[in-house]
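Notes taken during the Thursday session

The instructor put the following on the board and asked us to keep it in front of us for the whole hour. The protein is L-type lectin-domain-containing protein. We were told not to look anything up and to reason only from what is written here. First, the residues (600 in total):
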Amino acid sequence: MAFFISTTQLPFQKVLPLIIIILLLFVLLPYAHSIHFNFPRFEQSSKIDYKNDSFAANGAIELTRNTLQENITQSTGRAIYSAPVHIWDAKTRILTDFNTQFSFIITGILNGKDYYGDGFTFFLSPNRFTIPPGAGGGNLGIYSDNNSTENQLVAIEFDTFRNTGWDPPSLPRHVGININSRVSLNATALKPTSGNILVYKGDALVSYSASTKDLSVFLSMDVNGTSSGFGENPDLSWNVDLRDVLPEWVDVGFSASTGEGVELHQILSWEFNSTLEIREAGTGEQPNNKDGKKTGLIAGMAVCGAVLSAGIGGLVLFGLKRKRYRRRNEEGVAFDVEMNDVFERGTGPKRFSYRELLLATRNFSEDGKLGEGGFGGVYRGFLGEMNLDVAVKRVSRGSKQGKKEYVSEVKTISRLRHRNLVQLLGWCHERGELLLIYEFMPNGSLDSHLFHKKRLLGWAARYKIATGLASALLYLHEEWEQCVVHRDIKSSNVMLDSNFNAKLGDFGLARLVDHEHGLQTTVVAGTMGYLAPECVTTGKASKESDVYSFGVVALEIACGRRPVERKAEASKVMMVEWVWELYGRGLLLDGCGREAREGI
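Then, after some discussion, the predicted structure tokens were revealed:
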């Protein structure tokens, strides 16, 4: 909803009716019972209620007993979010959408037997639902032996032991959708299926659509260290109206159990999103809230008073802020138009949806963060449909310079094709996010090997990297249709593929110029230590200043040290000056690092 107000200054007596209308609109707006939480790791004190044998350890939820020093057979446990979730409203019959994503590991323990079990579930149950008697073994910590259909339970089960009588005979280890019963209405194999698999590791995405009533499950399993990624279509789904099977307020969480066969059940991370909009006030009270209506009335009056005060104060400042808002809005629209025009005109990189990248990077998990630049972070991702590892650059929100670099990078690198340049695979401009997708470089950046001892590089590898970088510069400066001045050549922008081939990346500062003209700029851009002296004094970048930066990287490769070492002796702080002095004294090879010198 948006409000547009005339720019004419209005006297207060004319503004007062407008304030009253706004207040009425606030009263009539839907009440939102939304919930969002994200646990990248777990602690015993987090907002999780641990039941029976479950507990938090080493940043994960252990759903059942997990040490061989105690009896881990016949163990049950449950971990539940501490607050109930409102999934539908009895008075209006409005139903919520929700989605949840979690990472898990199941570790089978043979323990003298040739089988293990039994599995875990993600479930929705009535608030304060207790673990019933006989919930161990194949009942997965939530069902009783009588398997009553009055359970009011919706569960996604990850079942590793086939129980005769209710588990699918053709799927001994499976993922299933259960409604009010331990019998799966729809199931798929828990992959991989071949051999005596002892460890299942993966991610699950469970979503529910209030409009279609589809409960869908997407799986991304780790096979031999490689994630399969989420597919475009769900691995299994079932059509169900949750209003028919669950109460208004539910608990959400995980349960697990072991029988005579045992295994460990770990939840590594968990994110949940739900939004319920109620069109009428006074509905959807939380369980056991006797004073809910009274509290709601007091809260409503307080909100109206606060809005009235804020509205009067806001109108005083409105005229001052309106001009600034209009200018920013015009800039934003112009930016969107420019980007769409630039991107859609391109022929190489493709457009990705924000959802694809959210799934690929596991919601931009910090565990998958590859690095942090001046204008945002870079995250590792896996595109299941393309079976491809990627690096996703995420520009920081609100960064004007980051937006400029985003457009500049796509304008430049999307048109370039060379074996020694990082390939841009795609882009995404949605929900205020600016994202660039590159090929993944498994050996990281050059500086990580030179200075962080990620892997020692011999002279042959160093020479190969230097010549690869030189080849990239020759292409940019002379061989492409226009001259590309990179302006930020440094070892951290030189990436290494699986064969240690150098690939130049990060074209955020790059500029296109005609071959016969130089680049004219008065803004110093680049990184100190790599900048040519004339760039610092005049602000002008050129092919020659790029070559100077290349020379600094070449010296880094040969010397094994950074361009500026502030803690070194005074004569050695600046690498270029130090090497120049050695050259003058005929001692040039004294500047070589030990690893490089061995191969010369």
